[in-house]
Structures are given as structure tokens and as C-alpha cells.
Design brief:
mainly alpha; 3% strand
Length: 153
């Protein structure tokens, strides 16, 4: 398997995982930790506020689902989606930094969070770098149009 095909497979797998996580949060909501658990882990003391926040969390799950779908599609249409995938990878890495705002190192470095944080702060920047590097290799087959800055296939 050549390097570009491996990259495509990795991007599709990453996308499929993100799609699953988006469905997990979007369809599961706050009350059950998504599909992670069947037990309720919160006591609702203000139903209206809880349902509003649950709706927001479900929306964020839907956004995450959409991000994953773009990764899956990008794995099959790398040339067209490469720059989008790089931007999404950078966004995910940036979002991972927001976890640090909780200022609770016991939680951040726990088994529940550390793997996700590692993927966000290390894995996605590496994926972005790989996408950039593969684009430079891909760029060797392109011809520059002398009348514009656009690259033509």
C-alpha cells in the first residue's frame, strides 16, 4: 500500500470514529453519557435548564457528526478536501486546548480524558502535517497556470 493510499485509509477511519462519537453524543445526550452507559449519572434539579443544555450538547454532537462525515468524504476525495481536512485537524487540535481551561489535572490526565487529549493535541497536528506533506508530493504532478495563481490538474 503506498503512502497516499495509507493516508486515505487513515482519514476514512478517523472520520468513521468521529461520526460514531457524533452519533453517540447527538443521539445519546447528557443524561446517559451518550451511548457510553445506560445508567443515569446526573440528577436533574432544573428540568428546563437541563433540557436546554441537553439540546445544545446534542447539537454539538451533530456538528461532530458532520466533521466526521467530511473526514470520511475527504478520504475518498483527498485532492478536493485536503485543505478542509487540514483546517479541521487544526480546529480539533485547538479545541483540545480548551480542555486545559478546566484546570483540573487529575481529570485531564485521567484514563477517561488523556487518550482523547493525546489524539487532539498530538494526533491531529500529525495528521495535518501528513496531509500537508502529501499535498506537496501531489503538487509535483500539477502545472502552474502562468496567467494566475491557480493550480491546474
Amino acid at each position: 500500500m503506498n503512502k497516499i493510499n495509507l493516508l486515505n485509509v487513515v482519514v476514512v477511519i478517523v472520520g468513521a470514529v468521529i461520526v460514531f462519537l457524533g452519533l453517540n453524543v447527538g443521539l445519546g445526550g447528557i443524561k446517559t453519557l451518550g451511548w457510553q452507559s445506560t445508567r443515569e449519572f446526573v440528577s436533574i434539579t432544573d428540568a428546563a435548564t437541563f433540557h436546554a443544555q441537553d439540546s445544545h450538547i446534542r447539537f454539538i454532537g451533530g456538528v461532530w457528526f458532520g466533521v466526521g462525515a467530511v473526514f470520511v468524504i475527504g478520504g475518498f476525495a483527498m485532492r478536493r478536501f485536503r485543505s478542509t481536512l487540514i483546517i479541521l485537524s487544526a480546529m480539533i487540535a485547538s479545541a483540545g486546548l480548551f480542555r486545559l481551561s478546566g484546570m483540573d489535572t487529575e481529570v485531564i490526565f485521567s484514563a477517561a480524558i488523556a487518550p482523547s487529549l493525546t489524539f487532539e493535541l498530538v494526533g491531529f497536528p500529525l495528521l495535518a502535517w501528513w496531509l500537508v506533506a502529501s499535498g506537496k508530493r501531489d503538487g509535483l504532478s500539477k502545472v502552474r497556470n502562468p496567467d494566475s495563481e491557480l493550480l491546474l490538474d
